Amino acid sequence: MLTIQNYVRAGSLEEAYALCQKKNNVVLGGMLWLKMQRNRVDTAIDLSGLGLDQIEETDSEYRLGAMVTLRQLELHPGLDRLTQGAMAESVRHIVGVQFRNLATVGGSVFGRFGFSDVLTLLLALEARVVLYRGGEQSLADFAAAPRQRDILTHVIIPKGERRVVYLSQRNTATDFPVLTCALSRREGRTLCAVGARPGRAEPFEDGQGLLAGGITPEGAQAFAREAAGRFRFGSNLRGSAQYRQEICQVLVRRGLLAMEGE
Asked: How far is CA 17 from CA 66, 109, 217, in A?
């Protein structure tokens, strides 16, 4: 059971950051995975009063506040158009509507959970993160870096014409995924992200130009085989490493062919 000694609703990012520097203090997101821990927290830091629960749009990007919920992502018409429904697809399997009404973008991204559907899709969209002290950086760099005691304030999704597909394999509905896969293709450039391996999601790009001439069944199979060979897979109660590698090939190939069929 999680035990919290003190609760502070931060009045500023500066206050939140200062409190965050103490080892036993924790920033609250949606408080969904955190509450399942067996831990003792000195001070729980609430960011809900800092206006970080908005999805802002400019000519070049969508700017997601850290306290934006997964349900907001699911229902946002602009993100739906940008991703051709992949954004809603990436979150609709996550437990249920009540859960998605509480789970936050910031918690999903900062947690770098190996099972994160959201992180997988955002990597394929070449998203960026904004940290209070660390500034703006690519999500790929942030996800691969060691954990740091900073405050994630926003996630930025660049606009632009692209084709996007999100797929996942689950043993049962609303369960953690066995594997997640997101693909985006823009101006002949293909980016793939695979997660729940069961490690955190990582991106892979078509560096060999297997799809440079367009997506064909042969090219999709070759790219899928290359991707499955690049990622490291592990075993847990949901599936073996070998099974995940086989599923990776299937999902990547299906995703590519689905993009070509649009």
From this structure: 14, 17, 50
